[in-house]
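User: Second chain of the day. Same drill as before.
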Amino acid sequence: MKRLIAAGAAVGAALVFFFDPSNGTRRRHEVRDRFLAIFRRTGKSAGQLGQSAKSSGYALKQKATHMKESPKEQPDDVTLARKVETEIFRNAEVPKGNINVNAENGVVFLRGAVNDESLIEALAEGARKVQGVREVENLLHVSGTPAPTKQT
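Assistant: Same format as last time:
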């Protein structure tokens, strides 16, 4: 019974609030505007969410399309050497000042000294991945050991 009285009082208060002769019209319009603003905001954020998903899907498609480099004509030796340098010097631990990269007719020569034995083969593998490299002559050596000579 108390709930029924409380609900009746709440409905009566709402009716007086919204149908007050001096301020009721303004209050009704204010509530309507706020209610519609909520729908506009949620509609915009839902639209932005859809746009974000669309952009992400397009980005994934582009990454998949361009994962592998398309075949190109054989670059000149200087360009090939710079491409190899770009690939193998990406790792911050590679001693860039101690390694020399040359290219002759698609054959890349790696010369210099490194601190770690495992880095020698990793650099050669990185050079082999570059498009246009026909062969890699790995003349790298660990610091303190004699340098290997070019095999003919």
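The first strand starts at residue 99 and ends at 104.

User: Great, on to the next one.
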